[in-house]
Amino acid sequence: VNVVKLVRDVQVKSIEQTLKHAEKYLGDICSLLAAYTRKTAKLRDKADLLVVQLFDFSRTEDPELQISLKNLAEDLAMVQDYRQAQVERLETRVVAPLKAYGDIVKNKRAELKNLSTDLNKELKELQKLDKLRVRNPADRQSIAEVNVQKSSHNAQRSIRQLEDSITDFQRQKLDDIKKIFTDFITVEMLFHAKALEVYTHTYHNLEEMNPQKDLEVAYASDTAGNSTSHYAGSVLASPKSQSLRTTMMSTAAQNHRLQRSQYPITAQRVSPNETFHRTEA
Amino acid sequence: VNVVKLVRDVQVKSIEQTLKHAEKYLGDICSLLAAYTRKTAKLRDKADLLVVQLFDFSRTEDPELQISLKNLAEDLAMVQDYRQAQVERLETRVVAPLKAYGDIVKNKRAELKNLSTDLNKELKELQKLDKLRVRNPADRQSIAEVNVQKSSHNAQRSIRQLEDSITDFQRQKLDDIKKIFTDFITVEMLFHAKALEVYTHTYHNLEEMNPQKDLEVAYASDTAGNSTSHYAGSVLASPKSQSLRTTMMSTAAQNHRLQRSQYPITAQRVSPNETFHRTEA
């Protein structure tokens, strides 16, 4: 019985160690995954600001770039929506169940303490009966023998409960760890897959952007003196919606008619119906 | 010529506005993308800490979970390597070229100022010659007419240079924006694709993890009194590597041989060659 008590003490300490390990490592991992989730949310915040800025920027630009920037901003916003879903899922499916381990360990510890107290009592009872038997070796079929049987039965039941309890804890821990990290990987994969899908679309949109179109628009409104583009509007706006070159032309034409040879060749940049200034000149 | 000057003033202001816009928006977008890159680096840092913690945790666990946690930690570390590549690429291919726009705008501004100064001189010269012509209307074929021609030519050349300069700037800006954002999307896609690839592998690894194996190992060493697993080592270690139940059994057997009926049925949990305790009993 003394050996039993010694082993039990060691075992109870070992169980305590198991719980302490689970508490420490799962606690630390929980904190780090919570921090990971927070950093992901901060990344989303920065990307959201970028979306706003891209929309602002798009409004000051010509149609081609404007559409491209708007598409880019919309796609970037969509990825941030997926990142938001990622953050929420990480919180509910990864961080929360890990956080729950604090209480699970606490409850398990209380449970084990109760079982350990029961076992202590039962072992003390056994020890008492043992001493009784040593003093009365002849009294083998006495009432004490029945009590030994009963106490031994109780002690073994408590030990079984103790072991089952820690086995249950280990089983739950293993299942939970498997589930939590599978969920973590699933949440991450889902986000990466969605981001990849959206950005593939964005990539093709950007590939189709033709900066030359905006330059033509700017140039056309420049030579035509008729602005529809924002760029031309902001860069070349004049009280008469005429470019400096066009004004210079008219003034020069009225005064000296010298401009013919100096007129820049822009035919290759403007569309046929915008070249009337050149033919006029 | 006065109309020309007015238009020129408006145009120079418009060009200034274009440069200011580019400076402001590209500058803000640069700052936000730099912040986005920094937050990505911080996310990598947190994930790196998680990797270390998972490795630490794995060392305290049984073979099955130990291997799963190690695989998970290694895969997570690999994704962080890709994230590091992402951060470096964002810095060199997105943030740096956007940052360069500060200097590009500054240089362009200096260039336009010089061209504007030249144009001012030429327009003043034209104005002077105009007045001369008004005072001497008969002197049409004089040397003044040649000077008017020359000054007008110079002024037009300056205007052309001014317009070419801003067109060049717009062309470079459009090409650069297209390239920078295409690079941004490419860098992001590359990372998401790699992360998805690694995590798909991780997911299958986790799926294959069988928690039951670790419970069997723990149980086997429990009933066999022969610990090879870390879990059994920490939870059930005793001076004789025997579990409390095994010790209890022997003690009880020596004293009372009462244990037969109370011995827990564990056959379904242990492998056949580990059941000798039960048959022994």
Give a quick set of tags describing it.
homodimer; 281 residues; mainly alpha; Substrate Binding Domain Of Dnak, Chain:A, Domain 2; 2 domains; 9 helices; disordered C terminus; coiled coil (chains A, B); CBAR/FAM92 (chains A, B); AH/BAR_dom_sf (chains A, B); Family with sequence similarity 92 member B (chains A, B)
How does this structure look, described?
Two copies of one chain form a homodimer. In chain A, helix 3 (101-135) runs antiparallel to helix 4 (143-208). Chain A folds into two domains: 2-209, Arfaptin homology (AH) domain/BAR domain (Substrate Binding Domain Of Dnak, Chain:A, Domain 2), CATH 1.20.1270; 212-262. Chain A has helices at residues 2-59, 63-99, 101-135, 143-208, 211-224, 230-236, 244-255, 259-262, 276-280. Chain A is built from nine helices and no strands. The interface between A and B is large, with 104 and 104 residues.
Secondary structure elements and their pairing?
Two copies of one chain form a homodimer.
Chain A: H1 2-59, H2 63-99, H3 101-135, H4 143-208, H5 211-224, H6 230-236, H7 244-255, H8 259-262, H9 276-280
Helix pairs in contact in A: 1-2, 1-3, 2-4, 3-4, 5-6
Coiled coil (chains A, B): 105-172
Keywords (chains A, B): Coiled coil
Protein name (chains A, B): Family with sequence similarity 92 member B
Short description:
Chains A, B: Its main location: cytoplasm. With 281 residues, chain A is an all-alpha fold.
